[in-house]
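Each record in this resource describes a single protein on a pair of labelled lines. The shape at a given residue is found from the number at the same position. The record below illustrates this layout:

***
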Amino acid sequence: MDDFSNNGNGGDSQHPNLNMNFQYQQPVPNAEVVLVLGIISIALCWCYGVIGLATGLVALILGSKSKRLYAENPSMYTESSYKNLNAGFICAIIGTALSGLVVLFVIIYFIFIGSIMSGIFSNFPFNH
């Protein structure tokens, strides 16, 4: 008997180690969306922080749901899409943190300007 016989594992008769019972891997759901939103959250965090904060939070929510799906059955999804998901998730964390700092800075700035303006106009001679 030759070494290339069908050994019952569904393989080709010329290639005994070729298993034809494979599972199609699909990309992790929302991996590209999370990556795009994470990058947008970093890029737009300087727009008073609101746009970056919104896109970052959406990316974090979608990313956590997709990570949960991947953790349930990792063999079902491609590794490259999981790496994109992780990169987008990290970008979303950075973008959300930067946007939060910008929002905090804008709030402090308006409080500071408001207190200066109230001090200037409290001594203004409008009441005479």
Notes: The mean pLDDT is 84. The chain has one domain: 31-122. The helical segments are 31-43, 50-72, 79-122. The CA atoms of residues 35 and 87 lie 6 Å apart.
